[in-house]
Every structure is written in structure tokens, then in C-alpha cells.
Amino acid sequence: MADAVAESPVIPSPSLAADFVTLTKPRIISLLLVTTIAPMFITPAGLPTWSLVGWVALAGYLMAGGANAINMWFDRDIDDQMSRTRLRPIPSGRLSPRVALTFGLSLGGISFALFWTMVNPISAWLALSGLLFYVMVYTVWLKRSSPQNIVIGGAAGAFPPVVGWAAMTGSVDLGALYLFAIVFYWTPPHFWALALNKQADYRKAGIPMMPNIHGVPETKRQMLLYTLMLIPLTLMPAVIGIQGLFYGVAATLLGARFLQLCWVIYKEDGVTPTTWRLYKYSLSYLALLFVAMAVDRWVPFGHRAMTQQVELGAPVVADLAPSDGAAHTDH
């Protein structure tokens, strides 16, 4: 028996490099990058160069990764109490809090410099605003104090499409704000689906998530209401001619499945496997919706006259990019 124990496999600890990557939450960032890059293909400024897409993707990853690392630094106490987070690099003791904070701040600084020099100043300020909103408004203020934490604080996740749009146009247009609204209304049903499945963890950590404060039935009702606001919002670009037939069909089918899952959850008692299916589907839903926006531009049919698109190009924030088109030239 001693031999059997001696021969038991030992699970190696992650490498230092792997721990630093974990601090950035790469799986979350992959979705953020989709919602950042796809809008670059639908602005009135035309199509981006591949070099610009590359710089935006790199700088976007670093800014989001920095925000996530700072989030893990601040939340290290509650991460140690939740089963799904206690093995993260800081609560497990593999990285010190000071190292993690320095890493996060450094990523944010490098990202800001890349956006400023290789893209344009307004995209740099917008990306930094997203980091500050996520850290200060969501992580530090709302996450531990209000069941509306994910509604208001979750707006941080809606900054990426605005950054992508501004990277192309050098301004924040109505189109960018429209994309912001889509992500904003998608966030509550997406995250509350996770919160329903992780109620015990959040309760143990003292985080006032909607299911723990207002109960499961009210959370389901709120999820359905936000979904009913989200779906018409996603269909509007096709209705008014900003997007074409391909996007319209995709948005309809994707939204129908989203609504179906929300309705089933609303009618079911308690928390069932459908809730977890909705959470996983919501990730694919947002990614596919934004991909459909970009692909629609390449489909050679189903488009109306594009004059209406310019209406969404009226700047809300003044153009801070060079007037010679350098906002989307090859670097």
C-alpha cells in the first residue's frame, strides 16, 4: 500500500507565466476582443487595415488583462472563500498581492501607450475609462454593496465596442453608443444566470448578488425583462437599414433562442440545468451577434442604400484623431 501511495501522481503547480496569464482572465478577454474588433468593420470609415486590427487587439487584451489583474488583487479576500476562485494565483499563495497589482497597473500603462501611439488618443482614453470603471465603480464600490452591482458596474464590459468604433472613426458616434447599449442590456441576464448557479459561493463571500438579496423568482423575472429589451435593440439595425439581411436573420435566430431559454427558466421552479445552459449560450450569443455584424458587410446581397448609416456617424464626442485619416492607416 505504501508503494501505491508513493506512486500516486502529483499534479504540478502552474508555471509563473501561466499564473500571470491567469491574472488576465483570457477566456473572458476573448469575448471582449470580439466585441472590440467586430465594430471596426461596420463603421462609416470603411474597412480597417489588418495592422490596425492587430494593434487594437493587443492593446485591448493588455487593458482588459490589467483590469482583471487589479480586480483579482482587490478581491483576493473573497476569492479565498469561493470554491470556484480559491485556486487563483493570489489566494493560493503562488503570487503575492503586490506583484499582481504591479502587473495589472503595468499592463494598463503599456496598453494606454499603445492605443495612444499606434491607434489614436480617444481610443486610449476610452480603454482607460473602461479599466477605471471596472475597478473603481464595479470592483471597489458596487460589487460588495448593491444587488445592482452587475447592472451598473457591468457597463464596464460595454466599453470595448466603443473603443473599436473610436479606433476607426476617431470619435464616439451614435453607432458606438448603440453597440454599448446592446452589451449593457445583455450583461444582466448573462451574469445573473451564473449568479443563480453560484448562490452559495456568493452568499459565503458576502456578495449581494440579485438571487441572494431578492430571491430566485425575482432574479428570473429581471432576466426576462432585460432580454425583452435586448432583443428589439439587436434587431433595430436591420430594421432601419444599417445592417443587412444576413445580420437580421442571425439576430432573429440568436435572439429567439436566448428568449426561449429565459422563458423556460422563468417558468421552471428553482434553479435547473437550463440556467447553466443559458449562461453558456449567452457567451456564444454575444460573440456570434457581433461576428454577424462584421460578416454582414461582406455579404453581397440584402442591403439597403447605405446612406442611413452615416446618420449614426454624427460625432457625440469630438474627433480627436488626425484629420488625414491616420486613425486607420497602416502602422
Strand content: under 5%
Biggest sheet layout: 2 strands, antiparallel
Quick check: average pLDDT? 89
In helices, the fraction of residues equals 55-70%
CATH fold assignment: Farnesyl Diphosphate Synthase
**Amino-to-carboxy terminus distance:** 64 Å
- Globally, the shape reads globular
Which structural class do you get from the secondary structure elements?
mainly alpha
User: Count of helical segments?
Assistant: 16
Indicate the multimeric state. single chain
Number of domains: 1
Whole-number radius of gyration? 21 Å
> How are strands sequenced across the largest beta sheet?
1-2
Query: How many beta-strand runs?
Result: 2
**Pattern of helices and strands:** HHHHHHHHHEHHHHHHHE
CATH class: Mainly Alpha
Task: Please identify, by name, the CATH architecture.
Answer: Orthogonal Bundle
Low-confidence stretches: 1-8, 306-311, 320-331
Give a verbal description of the structure.
This protein is mostly helical and 331 residues long. The protein has one domain: Farnesyl Diphosphate Synthase (Orthogonal Bundle). Helix content is 68%, strand content 2%. The protein contains 16 helices and 2 strands. It has a two-stranded antiparallel ribbon with strand order 1-2. The longest helix has 25 residues. The radius of gyration is 21 Å and the shape is globular. The protein starts with a helix and ends in a 14-residue tail after the last strand. 46% of the residues are buried. The N terminus and C terminus are likely disordered.
